[in-house]
Amino acid sequence: MPAGKKFHFRQNRSQLPGFGLSLGLSVAYLSLLILLPLASLILFSMNLSWREFWTVVTDRRVLAAFRVSFGSTFLAATIDLFFGFVIAWVLARYQFFGKRLVDAVIDLPFAIPTAVTGIALATLFSGKGLVGGQLEAFAHWFNTAFSTQLSFNIAFSQAGIVVALMFIGMPFIVRTVQPVLEELDKEVEEAASSLGADFRHIFLRVIFPGILPALLTGFALAFARGLGEYGSVIFISSNAPYETEIVPLLIVMRLGEFNYEGASAIGVAMLACSFLLLLAINFLQTLARNRRSA
Fold first, then answer.
1. Burial code of 182-220, b = ≥16 C-beta within 10 A, e = fewer?
2. CB contact burial 130-161 (16+ within 10 A = b; e otherwise)
3. Helices 260-293 and 208-227, axial angle in degrees (round to 10)
4. Contact between residue 288 and residue 99 where contact means Cβ atoms under 8 Å apart
5. Where do runs of H (alpha helix) occur along the chain?
């Protein structure tokens, strides 16, 4: 090295200016909009002692509401995962008359108020509704013919909760998977086909690994959206304690009783459960991406 010559080490920076300002605004916005409200909820619940907090969240009625909320949401998101993939596949791979209309209908649950959704579904699946009336007539015939006591009621039951959550969760699956299907390299599929692979092997070895992270993301979004759903569920559910009562409704009831500590304790417990489930799903997404890269 020549005498007197110095080397200056400089950290590589982005070619785009304004990184510091953009990052600061992003962190401030996320903190005010997300982190601060969640932190205030946790701090407010700390007014309760650990024993009082545990008594609130392990109450028999609260545990029943957790089972209804998580069970119904998981079932609805799982059903949406299958049918959402089918719809995304049709929209991404085929050309047909009315495709733009079908594509637009997918976004309707985003635009319709949840209360309107609940009223519409309750009217449709009630005993006098278009679908509910037919199901009730079929149940009467079936029970008379086979001497059973089966019920096919959807409205005002846990099945109605699942239907409402399926309605609001479907767009998350479709809109997450459809762009990935459209961007998949079809030349790889054609190469696999030319080498003698049938469609089943092409799907399992080429297509499915490419869309698995998107499927998990869509499932996580549908699950998270359904878990906090309130407006559409309370109209199609009977809201019966221990049977069809969901956690958001129970929180609203505690607030109506001015039991703010109890409502915050239930909210923190639900937040913790949701965070753990989403963390597990993100872990599966990371594994799927790493496996695809390998």
1. eeeeeeebeebeeeebeeeebeeebbeebbbbbbbbbbb
2. eebeebbeebeeeeeeeeeeeebbbbbbbbbb
3. 180
4. no
5. 19-30, 36-45, 50-57, 60-93, 99-105, 108-111, 114-125, 130-146, 158-183, 186-194, 199-202, 208-227, 231-236, 247-256, 260-293
Inter-residue contact 68 to 161 (CB < 8 Å): yes
Q: How far apart (Å, rounded) are the C-alpha atoms in residues 114 and 20? A: 39
| Tens-digit pLDDT profile for residues 240-275 | 889 999 999 999 999 999 988 899 999 999 988 888
CA distance 154 to 17: 56
pLDDT for 40-80, tens place per residue? 888 888 888 899 999 999 999 999 999 999 999 999 999 99
Distance CA 19, CA 21 (A): 6
Q: How far is CA 179 from the centre of its chain?
A: 18
How many angstroms separate the Cα of 164 from the Cα of each of 36, 43, 155, 237? Answer: 31, 33, 10, 9
pTM of the shown model = 0.84
Distance between CA 227 and CA 262 in Å, rounded?
19
Distance CA 121, CA 115 (A): 10
| CA geometry: angle 219, 225, 231, nearest 5 deg | 145
Q: 133: which 2 tokens?
A: 């009336």
DSSP 8-class letter at 46: T
Q: What is the CATH number of domain 50-293?
A: 1.10.3720.10
8 A C-beta contact, residue 183 and residue 217: no
Helix (H, G, I), strand (E, B) or coil at 197: coil
